[in-house]
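Researcher: Here's a chain I'd like modeled. Treat it as a single chain, no partners, no ligands.
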Amino acid sequence: MRLRAPTANSNRSTLQGPPMRSPTIKDVAERSQVSLKTVSRVINNEATVREGTRNKVLRVIAEMGYQPDLSARSLRSARSYALGLVYDNPNPYYVIAVQSGVLSVCRESGYGLQIHPCDSNSANLAGELVHLARHSRLAGLVLAPPMSERLELIRHLRANNIPVVRIISAAADPQDGFPCVYVDDRDAAYDITKHLIQLGHQRIGFLWGGEAHRSSPERYRGYESALKDYGIALDKKLIIHGDYSFDDGFRGARKLLALKERPTAIFGSNDEIAAGVLAAAKSSGLEVPYDLSIAGFEDSPFSKQSWPTLTTAKQATEEIARHATQLLISEIDREENDVEKLTVVSNKGFSPQLVIRGSTGPARAAS
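Model: Modeled as a single isolated chain. Structure tokens:
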């Protein structure tokens, strides 16, 4: 009898072997030597699991590359394991930092994330967000400015039993009954203005951001308070309204630099505005900071990539978003009578810190 040589196909099937399957929760439980329920509790970040057991299960999950099926988990229970992030902001660097902070907590806590950009001026915004939460089975929403600062919208969402946490601009905890993370833009703007005054600047221009954002009037109040405290009269010709954009920074600066008595320093309400001011100064033949000092706000990549680099206020946007997400998950647990499963997270305030760079220097007399 002659033996037939194996075909190419038969060799390939022999070498490949059976297809690899994804690890299951049962596999994780067997290797960890714990029950399926314990693995589930670890995945759900329940505080009733002992720290040693939690670490062992998490180590096995990482080694096996196990990925919980969040959609299936939501379908198996009445509880949803997905959050929504709602924003309307022209600054892409702010949006990216917020997304990164929210997503990091979702991954740690076993939640999915749905990102929802929207038009904050929409007449049906409240209905749109209620539909979003119900149609997508979202457990709750993280709201970024300016939606987060509209109490009538917050009340409508809560009336429809949708947990919400807000990121807002405020000098103190508003204590209005709605959970939030608040940023003291006013105090940081005061510090920036004080820095310019202490460099000898008396004529300091101020460029507003979008008035729909509470951060803009808060930053203006800090600027105004510093001038008052140092005995400098407020000159309304030095104040220009606009939006949080490079173009408005450029246009606003051109107006200020065309004044008969131009400012020796300009404070832009964010770094994009300040970058626009820097471009306007260079197009006018001015040297920064020798002829004009410029300051921004937020410490975005604009502030580090410009030349000279921008004096600004460093805002921990990613950490702010992380805390907001932790607060939201805490609120969801509380509403589902699971308070004991998670340490209660409280409202928290953040204060942006002054960062002095090459765009500000001692005042020179205007020519």
